[in-house]
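Thread: Newbie trying to understand structure tokens

Hi all, I'm a second-year student working on a class project, and my supervisor (Dr. K.) asked me to get a predicted structure for one chain before our next meeting. I've only ever worked with sequences, so writing a 3D structure as a token string is new to me. If someone could post the tokens and maybe explain what I'm looking at, I'd be very grateful. Here's the chain:
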Amino acid sequence: MVGRMQRPRDLEEVMRFDPEEGIADLDQHLDRLRDAAAAQGFKFDRHDARNELQAATFGKRRPATARLLLSPTGAMAIEVTVA
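---
Reply by user tm_fold:
Sure, no problem. This is what the structure looks like when written as tokens:
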């Protein structure tokens, strides 16, 4: 269709999780996500993102990868996959 607006793609941030250390370079990941969200006009709440990541990795006993998707509305989805 001509003239149809495309929905912006979700932003994605992939992080390494270690059960002893937590998410590696978490502040840098959150800064990068904040900057990308601001550049594209997405809503982003850093505090909520940190809390959601902590909840998603709570009790994990093996190294894993955490993948955070951020929608333009600020909604987040987090997937944790054991490495």
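A couple of things are worth pointing out once you decode it. The first strand starts at residue 11 and ends at 18. Helices lie at 26-40, 46-57. Feel free to ask follow-ups in this thread.
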